[in-house]
Amino acid sequence: MSVNGVVVILTALNLEYEAVRDRLTGLAVRRHAAGTRFEVGRIGQSGPRVALGLVGKGNHPAAVLAERAITEFRPAALLFVGVAGGLRPSVALGDVVVASKIYAYHGGTSEDDGLKARPKAWEIPHEADQIAHHVVRAGDWCRDLAAGASPRVHFGAIAAGEVVQDSAVSAQARWIRQHYNDAMAIEMEAAGVAQAGHLNRALPVVVVRGISDHADGSKAVTDGQNWQPRAARHAAAFAAALAQEMTIDSSRRGDGMPGEQGSALMPMKNENRASGNARVGVQAGQIHGHVTIGAGREGPVDLAASIADLRIRLKQACLDGRLDEETYAAAEAELDAAAGCLRDGSAANHGGFLMSLKRLRGLVADVSELAAKLAIIIAAARGIA
Fold first, then answer.
1. What's domain 7-251's superfamily in CATH?
2. Structure confidence at residue 290 (pLDDT)
3. How confident is the model at residue 260 (pLDDT cuts 50, 70, 90)?
4. Rounded to an integer, what distance in angstroms lies between the CA atom of residue 355 and that of residue 378?
5. Which of 7, 56, 235, 237 gives 210 a disulfide partner, CB atoms 3.0 to 4.6 angstroms apart?
């Protein structure tokens, strides 16, 4: 998993989106350059950061927008959350199915003696599977659901195609039973998302589905009984608990054990990106070789020029969609405050200058170029304190 700590959650339907969104706080819009809108927030008040997106129905848009989200956020994991039709009597309405395997069931070849299946499948990554089972055993994921709701969690294959199945006797239903008879649920997006994850260095992808009908001709009845929003809420509750546990587990990756005081160890893999004249000012974790913190050998940093350069980079990040407008406005305000303190030049305002830069660093931490530039400026400012 990435050390970024962001989890992307995608949904196909608005009611699924709202079920996840209800569990997030501090939401801010993030616009992709191609027009896709994500909302970024946290699970609860202090949980992991989540980038939430709506992809619409079908494996093709799911694959395209999953790729877009992966490129935009470089997430620790990608979850697809929503509703599905159940294919087993043992899977009740409202239950949750976690895909241990995903079938793209429309692949095949047409021959004289009939249509032959050409299965394509993706399995859940082992580590993600282990974490999901842990969430089930812990049992806390469903504690805030409606009174009387006690959905079970099943692990099994999910079949993903391009049509809504609402019959137990149609040709497609018979096809599924003949070739994919271990499938517990059927839906329309998992294959696209799984393929996007597979093509991105095996990014962990987990599909979580609440069962809203039985794919047997009763969909109109179950929809009328509001099983879709209920099933979506159940899936969202499990996904939120899973996202939280996955990010906690990722932060412990150093040796798999918490520190002596209960704090998580820092990951031992570090990735720094810088462009233009930016340099990496601070690196934490496992470091080999000589390390210099601060302005480097080139001479002292011109703080005024660095602030002016940072302002240009900040604006460009907003134009590129790497910063949403609200964050950009807040960052500009902190930059103005820092520049004012710098112009004043008094010792009393030096602390204010550093404080504004630290607040600014928190706002732009997700944009590696800006974070690296700020690290250099802060280190230089501390050096002249």
1. Nucleoside phosphorylase domain (3.40.50.1580)
2. 42
3. very low
4. 10
5. 235
Region 264-291: mean pLDDT is 48
- pTM assigned to the model: 0.67
Structure-token match 């009174």, residue found: 147
Query: Per-residue pLDDT averaged across 334-345, rounded?
Result: 83
Q: Where are the alpha helices (DSSP H) in the chain?
A: 14-21, 59-73, 126-138, 171-179, 190-198, 219-224, 227-251, 303-319, 325-344, 347-363, 368-383
Question: Distance (Å, rounded) from C-alpha 76 to C-alpha 18?
Answer: 22
- Give CA separation, 311 vs 179, 283, 362, in Å: 59, 24, 16
pLDDT on residue 369? 84
CB 182 within 8 A of CB 157: yes
Q: What distance in Å separates the CA atoms of residue 153 and residue 185, rounded to the nearest whole number?
A: 12
DSSP string, 40-79: EEEETTTS-EEEEEE--SSHHHHHHHHHHHHHHH--SEEE
Region of 154 (left: φ > 0; alpha: ψ -120 to 50; beta: rest) is: beta
Q: Which of 114-128, 208-222, 241-255, 274-288 has the lowest mean pLDDT?
A: 274-288
Supply 154's token pair. Answer: 């099943």
